[in-house]
Amino acid sequence: MEYITLNNGVKMPMAGIGTFLLTSDEAEEACVSALASGYRLIDTANAYLNEKAVGRAMKKSGLKREEIFLETKIWPSFYEQEDAVEKTLERLDTDYIAGYRLMEKAYKAGKVKAIGLSNFTAEQIKEILSGCEVKPTILQTEVHPYFQERELKDFLQKEGIVIQAWYPLGHGDKALLEETTFTKLAKKYGKSNAQIILRWHIQAGNVVIPGSKNPAHIRDNFDLFDFSLSEEEMADIEALNQDKRYYTSTPELLKKYVEMVPPVDTQK
Questions:
Q1: Closest Cα partner for 70 from 93, 27, 95, 41?
Q2: Main-chain phi, psi angles of 162, to 5 degrees
Q3: With 0-12 CB in 10 A as exposed, 13-18 as middle and 19+ as buried, what is 99?
Q4: Whole-model pTM?
Q5: In this predicted model, what pLDDT tens digit does every residue of 190-232 receive, in sequence order?
Q6: Which residue, 88, 6, 101, is CA-closest to 54?
Q7: What values do phi and psi take at 233, rounded to 5?
Q8: Residue 160 belongs to a domain
Q9: What is d(CA 194, CA 249) in angstroms, rounded to the nearest whole number?
């Protein structure tokens, strides 16, 4: 495993398992498999409705709680609820998480190890930075070889904020996965095209959380630490940037998300 040190001194694994779009049972099985394969980073969210399953998986793993870097995300409409963090911790069956006034309060109380942001723009992050007491450590956003977010990343680097890539494999886009560059490098290193992409992310400083419910894919997505790409090979991949998103937010969609109250995770 390789780690990155966040701006508050906390060490975070560079590769983890994502649970977006996984049912409760699928998330539990995927996380159990991932932890058994060596993963130590798990990503979930209130809105995924699988936090309880993730909590069960951590218990089943037999690992000590402090060995697992757990992150979840509070839905915007929950921010002002005084017990939002407590309810999240209860669902996860843990007494702290890795993850603004409310979250700062939880951070100061030792209930969270770090505060992060999800899907914020540079302007929105600047707004947070202008008034926060506890600086955000990480931004979770769409990043992959076709959409490298160079300007945003330069801004984040200056602020000491790490990028965490969702859709790190381009939402499974066949055109991206089968790029000649990746095929050539996969043959050279005895890896898959997906592993080459994930290795590029890690060397570029991006934390990755690819999701899968297939145990073999989960293992493959973590088999990234026995080789390194050269500077020239990294540059070849950087040249593939097309500023191509697979998810585009609109003001209308953002307003809908902010105001929506997602169902509560009632799974046992």
A1: 41
A2: -90, 150
A3: buried
A4: 0.89
A5: 999 999 999 999 999 999 999 999 999 999 999 999 999 999 9
A6: 88
A7: -70, -40
A8: yes
A9: 26
Lateral strand order in the sheet of 69-71: 17-18, 41-43, 69-71
Q: Determine the structural domain holding residue 49 and report its residue range.
A: 12-259
- CATH label of the domain that carries residue 57: 3.20.20.100
Instruction: Report if residue 71 sits inside a domain.
Output: yes
Residue 267 lies in a domain: no
For residues 30 and 6, what is the distance between their CA atoms, to the nearest angstrom?
A: 26
3, 39, 48, 246: the active-site residue: 48
Q: What size, in residues, is the chain?
A: 268
E strands, the chain, are: 3-5, 11-13, 17-18, 41-43, 69-71, 116-118, 138-142, 162-166, 206-208
Angle between helices 180-189 and 231-238 (to 10 degrees): 160
Nearest to 16 by CA among 227, 218, 226, 229: 218
Q: Is 48 among the residues known to form the active site? A: yes
Residue 78 in domain: yes
Residues of the chain with pLDDT under 70: 76-80, 99, 249-268
| Number of domains present in the structure of the chain | 1
Can you state the angle between helices 51-61 and 24-36, rounded to 10 degrees? 30
- The pairing of strands 116-118 and 138-142 is parallel
